[in-house]
Give the backbone structure.
Amino acid sequence: MAGTLNKVMLIGHLGDEVKMHYFEGGNAIGRFPIATNESYTNRQTNERITTTEWHNIVVRNKLAEICEKYLSKGDKVFIEGRIKTRQWEDQSGNKKYSTEIHAAEMTFLSTKKELGGPTNQTKTNPSSLEIDDQNQQNTIDDLPF
């Protein structure tokens, strides 16, 4: 196999509102966490165990604006993107790391805000929105199948 692949697909629920940051020149970044769950039965105790994994989602420009407008805490989304790890130093000089999912495509599986009905499925593809940001990342949280 030639090359490499960095692709993530997630289906999950927003854990908070979309936090927006605007920059000179009209660019924008939105950030929000999503939660995915995994359930299994403990064979020794026959107890149902559910674990939650949190993912930091990053969306850019037009996709970020759409997310801010239509998504709220608790909404279910399908995200496709890629994993990116950031590194920085804190005030004490310690190295810090953050792993993020940079979304390129997103499908709204359920929203609380009115999109023309109680629940709508809106597929948002940055290429169809004429987003020309080559740094757009892909993320998917929970798959609908």
User: Anything to note?
Assistant: The two ends are 28 Å apart (CA to CA). The longest strand covers residues 95-110. The chain has one helix and seven strands. Confidence is low (pLDDT under 50) at residues 116-145.
